[in-house]
Request: fold
Amino acid sequence: MNKLGVHALVWTADWDRNGAAMAIGKSAELGFDLIEMPALDPGAIDTDHTRRCLDEAGIGITMSLGLDAETDISSGDPGKVKRGEERLTLALTVARDVGATHVCGILYSALQKYFEPPKPSGVSEAIDVLSRICEEAAKSSITLGLEVVNRYETNVLNTAAQAVEMCKRIDAPNAKIHLDTYHMHIEEAGQAEAIRQAGDHLGYFHIGESHRGYLGTGSVDFESAFRTLVSIGYDGPITFESFSSVVTGQPLTGILAIWRNLWDEGEDLARHALEYTRAGMESAHEARAIRSGFDFGEVV
Ligand code: MN
Reply:
């Protein structure tokens, strides 16, 4: 079965000792299998403390980040590319030290609105960097998830098809695609088509609503997403992502463009998301079993 996770920004924007302990404790208490730790500033994380909290709570962890303009490895600017590789290398060290299984997010460009298309030479350079980062990550059994996001957050990977192409070019077994229902809803023909295109390259999955609030209250076709995840045999993490300025604060509120809030209480939101995802995946498995002509009892 897929491990179900929750993004730490449902709980807190501060990954200091108190924030980490609270976020990990709450996630475990609700029944999540893992927490996704945003690491926009990986050097500031007390890895020993985080690992102790995870051990106590008995849950796993993944890590996500987006590069910024100064660390943009697709920019073609040697200084920025160098700083970007250093940032990714540091993120890997932190991921290894906290015991993270995946490092995902916008690892191939900055998380920002671009005003020009990417330069092929810049993308090639990003691929060279990511090949080295994958090699390093493999030593700690870490999978990289290249998150496909909408056009206002990168100019490099907006569709699953583009990400398949990049994975093939990186050509490392731990270079995987990270899809997100919120972004797919904007850019793809449909959830099913995109998930099918990613296929065996899919290694990480975010679920979020069209407005990034409560699941099922927007216009994302989750039934299609869940059924297709089951049909391609996806067995990686499924992590819930939702933002409210009540938690994020600046600069994240601005970076993520949270101009209106869909919730102010993370616990109720996260409990609902877990139940919604579990129920959705269970019913997708049942539907698959019926189509395959198996008895329910044989379905694991
Ligand atoms: Mn996401």
